[in-house]
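Q: Structure for this?
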Amino acid sequence: MSNDPTHQFLVNKIVPIEIGGIDFSFTNASLFMVATVGAAAGFLYLTTSQRSVIPTRMQSVSELSYEFIASMLREGAGSHGMKFFPMVFSLFMFILTANLLGMFPYFFTITSQIIVTFALAVFVVGTVILYGFYKHGLGFLKLFVPHGVPGALLPLVVAIEVISFLSRPISLSVRLFANMLAGHITLKVFAGFVASLSAFGALGIGGAVLPLIMTVALTGLEFLVAFLQAYVFAVLTCMYLNDAVHPGSH
Amino acid sequence: MFVTAAYAQQSTTTEGAEAHDAPAAGEVHTETGVAHEGEHGSGVFPPFDSTHFASQLLWLAITFGLFYLLMSKVIIPRIGGILEKRHDRIAQDLDEASRLKGEADAAIASYEQELANAKAKGHSIADTAREEAKSKSNADRAAVEAELAKKITAAEARIAEIKSKALADVGAIAEETATAVVKQLIGGDVTKTEIAAAVKASAGN
């Protein structure tokens, strides 16, 4: 079934583990989670081990990602939001590395699993809710009551605000998941066309050039999407954290 | 499914014995894979397969938790420290540069002060020299003028002396001439005193 575009999303057990009747097996997804953490942490650790004042190219990459996320968070959630910097930085690096690792042929893309992206989104929104209530108590609920809304419209606006807040974990997770899934399926389908067309002799090989060009172009696009989705996830995380830090400011 | 059905039909028409193999053969041709069943247990779209959700969540929690700890305890303080150090270093270098610039400015100022002093000194030297030259020339001129004046007065005195002497001679000549004239005219003798008186009287006119 090598030509099946969804085959790449199959989860296979590597080390079966069962605790209390629940399957906690170490799967290929788990393996790539470990690989993601190893690659991201290893890169950041090794490139900064020199701690040179004048950075090497690789050290610059690590510093740039640090400053990129720091300025994003400062703009999004203000200086009070900087206490969430480790969280946003970890999320961005984890998702970016996972997306980029997924670009390797035969590698498993953990961000194409809805449960993974949903868990990350719930982690973000859960942090917003917990910190919001911890810091502002019931004042956090001002988040749902925008300023300057006429009294008659208020119930409607509050209802909309509550629904939009509740849909955040879904939109946040589905955006990342669907982008990675759709991109990988599209790549696989076009690459599959190349293989199946070239099976039809010389004419088929000539015709296979078109999907081949498409595959190359899509690969470039997918690298862009891999970065862009990590960026979008981080930006939205900053915006949501801003609600926790400054409720009622919008 | 269309492919499968068509293939199955073809199989049944050509060779009835193979009819029961058709679904398996059809599956090989299912390139879209949307209705791909039987390959794995649950038969749902793999990303929505809930059998592995618990394992995914556990391993995500373990790996991401570890990653978060690594980031917040090791990587972020380290990169933050590097950036801080560089920031301090740049600030220090800027301070040093501004200190050196201050020194250079002071050096320029003192040089200009020296230059101004030297110019002023030069001016004063030139002024004194000019004053000295002027007063010396004035003195010389005064001396020359005084000498000239002395010479003039001496000359004038001499002229006056010569004049008075000449005038005195004029009296004696007149007396002699008058005596001679009188002698010639009247042939008598006239006393010297009379002549002198007469000359004096005429000279007085």
